[in-house]
Amino acid sequence: MHLDIRPMVAALGALFFIAMPAMAGEPIELPTPQAQAELLDMLEREALYRDRVEWPAIRARLKTAQGDPGRTRDVRREAIDRSSGGHGRWISSQRLQSEARRLGRSNAAVATAPEAPVPVDLLDRRIGWMGIEGYSAAPGPAAREQMKARAARWQAIIGDKDNGNRCGWIVDLRDNTGGNMWPMLLGVAPLLRTSAMGIEDVGSFETADGPVRWQTTASGVRMGEATRLDFGQPGYLPSLVGAPVAVLTGPRTASSGEATVLAFRGRAQTRSFGQPTAGVSTANVVRRLVDGSALVLTTSVMRDRNGDGDGRKIAPDQATVGDAATVAAAEAWLLAQPACQGS
What we know:
Blueprint: H1 33-46, H2 55-64, H3 69-84, E1 89-91, H4 93-112, E2 127-131, H5 143-161, E3 168-172, H6 181-187, H7 189-192, E4 200-207, E5 210-216, E6 220-223, E7 226-230, E8 245-249, H8 256-264, E9 270-274, E10 282-288, E11 294-303, E12 318-319, H9 323-335, H10 338-341
Helix pairs in contact: 1-3, 2-3, 5-6
């Protein structure tokens, strides 16, 4: 079966799928010489940290390594890792298709799975809990509808929990390992937004041509002037718009998970708890190469709504260790906010 993976190409800031690690004993996969030359040119011309690589030396080492698949792979990985800060990668055409099939199965299972329980039974009944996990749509013509469906599911969970007595919310991003940021931002928009209508800046990609803003609207999310996802009608409106939010982070919070952290950073009545994130708060584009493989190319730094962000680990406002301490600190802060004092 042929899988159409064209919709994933040039998806700024949205790593549509994470390459599976090679298993021991598997043959070493390499791009063709033409694709490898194309890959190196892209990295040298566009990669975010391209100045960290001595490109003539890399090319000389690759030439010397010809005929040795292991050395060739290692030199190529070094060039990608250095120029992307550890966020980029090369994916063979075979692995692209196998990962697409895996994502299709995974997304089908998650769509019908019950929501994960709150990890600790400490919450005051006035505090709502929402977990946003990593998510990548399987590439293909239905990808956009899949992303809208996931965002709608997250908003529906918020609606189910919004019983009218919530004075604050915990948004748990500790298991958000990345994927596609746009359904995440749209899914959590009822808690991210501070107004019922209008356009709100929630972050940006810092590019060579200046910042490209991430924005939420009453019905969707945008990147600059381009709509990324939109329901076509207003999404869920919580009973308390702009309620206080405590954001939980940890070392598994990565990539698009970190974009979601940054979207909350700088929001009024918001504070983060836990441990620093993974440290890949940078944006990728996926470029097809001449042999059908793909380069995940890191091109820009993610920043919050105030323009702060350096592509590295995002430290929480309050460092805590362990579920109990993290949730207790978040709950105590929320209950001290004016919205909870009078409830």
